[in-house]
Write a structure and sequence with these properties.
289 residues, D-Maltodextrin-Binding Protein, domain 2, 6-stranded mixed sheet, 43% helix
């Protein structure tokens, strides 16, 4: 049963990269106003889609791979979690000394089905390989107990990059770190798109929030976040063991927050390749609010 409330429930992701999108919802002067229209629950990327599917949320920052399985759901235009090249927070870390060609088992971070789907596409279509894929909680050392490559996303990936030199000193082992957004861009010349806002259309029709108001709220929050990156850096430096300079580069240069034409080109290619690889059942029709 869908959420019965005049407020729309937002399933948001408690990672660093969506922080600019959530700015107005979490900071004054607009947080109080938006609090009269929306309430927020914290989720992982994969849980956002589950909340929309179950009706326990009305709006979610959903992984793009999950969109095809969300009926009666429209994309909120304008906002995305994407990258035009290197993103840093989506890493394939290869332990096998033989490199990519020798990888036989890949542990996939269960936090995002989209990054897992991109990984499958890259292995099968670019690297011409068909390893076994194992869903796994984001823990690099535990992943390497069962696989010879590991996919990490979000904050665990950023932390793994920061620990790269120290890990090599601890273990004497040199790993291969591949930024998958960069690999995608170099191969396809399109953007890597991880997530966008999606809304249950039945929930919107029952609310007192207009389509135009909702789009404006989310785009204005994104713009407010991009205008306050320095404060986001200050807040997140206390939450994650990543230097402020790295967070600044990440938010300014690595993540792209606009669902624009280069992102739509990347999305369309992603869906086509995912179907060709058997990772998704069909190419979805992108329906916008």
């Amino acid at each position: 049963m869908s959420v019965a409330s005049k407020k729309l429930v937002i399933a948001a992701i408690n990672f660093l990269n969506p922080a600019p999108l959530m700015w107005d919802f979490e900071h004054q002067p607009r947080a109080t106003e938006l609090g009269r229209r929306y309430s927020i629950i914290s989720s992982t990327p994969s849980e956002c889609a589950q909340h929309l599917r179950a009706g326990t949320a009305d709006i979610g920052l959903v992984p793009v791979a999950a969109y095809s399985s969300l009926p009666n759901t429209a994309i909120v235009p304008g906002c995305a979690i994407a990258s035009l090249d290197e993103v840093r927070s989506i890493l394939l870390i290869v332990r096998h000394p033989g490199g990519l060609e020798a990888v036989r088992r890949v542990a996939l971070d269960t936090a995002s089905i989209t990054s897992a789907t991109y990984t499958r596409i890259l292995f099968r279509k670019l690297w011409k390989s068909d390893p076994e894929f194992l869903p796994f909680v984001a823990d690099l050392e535990a992943m390497f107990n069962v696989a010879d490559a590991a996919l990490l996303i979000g904050d665990p990936a950023l932390l793994a990059l920061e620990d790269r030199e120290l890990r090599e000193q601890r273990t004497g082992e040199r790993l291969l770190y591949l930024d998958l957004a960069h690999e995608w861009r170099a191969w396809t010349n399109t953007a890597w798109v991880s997530a966008f806002w999606a809304v249950r259309e039945d929930a919107l029709s029952r609310s007192e929030i207009s389509r135009q108001q909702l789009i404006q709220d989310f785009e204005r929050s994104r713009d407010g976040g991009l205008d306050n990156i320095d404060q986001i850096i200050e807040e997140w430096s206390a939450r994650i063991a990543v230097p402020p300079a790295v967070i600044k580069t990440y938010l300014y240069d690595n993540v792209h927050y606009f669902l624009d034409d280069v992102c739509l080109d990347g999305l369309n290619l992603f869906y086509r390749y995912a179907v060709e690889c058997g990772a998704l059942p069909a190419v979805p029709t992108l329906r916008f609010l």
